[in-house]
Design brief:
single chain, mainly alpha, 2 domains
Length: about 80
């Protein structure tokens, strides 16, 4: 019984050691740096493109819709005034 308990402890120690080494390898891998650099390059490119955020686009769409509604009302008033003349 002690042999199986000792064997289990050894296996557990090996598993924890491997997990720590894999985690360290991932943290130190160049993939993380590559991702960071690609994101930075993309952000720079997007800034040069003069893009707007979704929130700003949605806000401007609502403003445009209200402006169109007001324009239609004004056009109807102008048409009505022209008919009276």
């Amino acid at each position: 019984m002690q042999k199986s308990s000792h064997l289990f402890e050894q296996m557990q120690t090996i598993a924890v050691d491997m997990q720590n080494k894999i985690g360290e390898a991932i943290r130190n891998s160049p993939a993380k740096d590559i991702e960071k650099n690609v994101r930075a390059m993309m952000n720079q490119g997007f800034q040069k493109m003069d893009l707007v955020t979704r929130e700003e686009f949605d806000l401007q769409s609502r403003v445009l819709a209200k402006t169109r509604e007001k324009l239609e009302v004004l056009e109807e008033k102008v048409t009505a005034l022209e008919k009276k003349s």
